Amino acid sequence: MASNSIAYPTYIIDLQTQKTYEDVGGKKWISQMGISFAALLNHETDEIKLYTEADINILYNNIVSSHLIVGLNLNKFAYKVLSGYRSTDFKKIKSLDILEYIRKKIVRKPCIDDLFLGTLGINKSIDNMKITRLFQEGKIEEAKQISIDNVIALNSVYSFGKHKGHVFLNDLTGQRWKISVSW
Prior knowledge:
Layout: H1 4-7, E1 10-17, H2 21-24, E2 35-42, E3 48-52, H3 56-64, E4 68-71, H4 74-82, E5 95-97, H5 98-103, H6 112-120, H7 128-136, H8 140-164, E6 166-170, E7 176-180
Parallel strand pairs: 1-4, 4-5
Antiparallel strand pairs: 1-2, 2-3, 6-7
C-alpha cells in the first residue's frame, strides 16, 4: 500500500505566463495572462514534470490532489492565473507560499534573491517577466530550463527549512538573519 505522501505528494510549483501585466492591461487581469508552462517538482521523488497550456487539466488535477503545494506568490499570482482556466476556490488547496510565510515573521518585505543567497549561498533570481519574454521570443527551451532551475532551488529552500526548522535571509547590508519556520 502506498503511503499518503506518495499518493498525495507535496509539489513545488513554478508557473509561468504567456503574457505580462502590461500585455493584459494590468494586475487586475492576471487571469488573462495564460499559462506558457508550469514546472511541478514532486518533493518526495524529485521528479519534475513540465506542463503547457494544453496540459492544464492534468496540472490542475495534480494540484488539487496534492498533500501540499509549495511556491512563491501562489495566492496573488499563480492561483489567479489558473482561475482563468477553472472556477475553483483555490483557498481550499493546502498551500505554502514561502515568501508570504516569511513576510508574517519579519518587518520588511523579503526578496527571494536574499532567501536563496542566505539559505543556499547561491545568487539566484526569479525573474518571471524575463521568462515570459523568452517564451514570447520563441526561446522555449531556455525559458523551461530557468523554470526547472527555479523549482529545484525552491525545493532546496523548502527542504532546508523543513529539516532544520529555519532558513536564512540576507538583508540589504549583506547580514544573514536566521528565520524560524515550521513547515
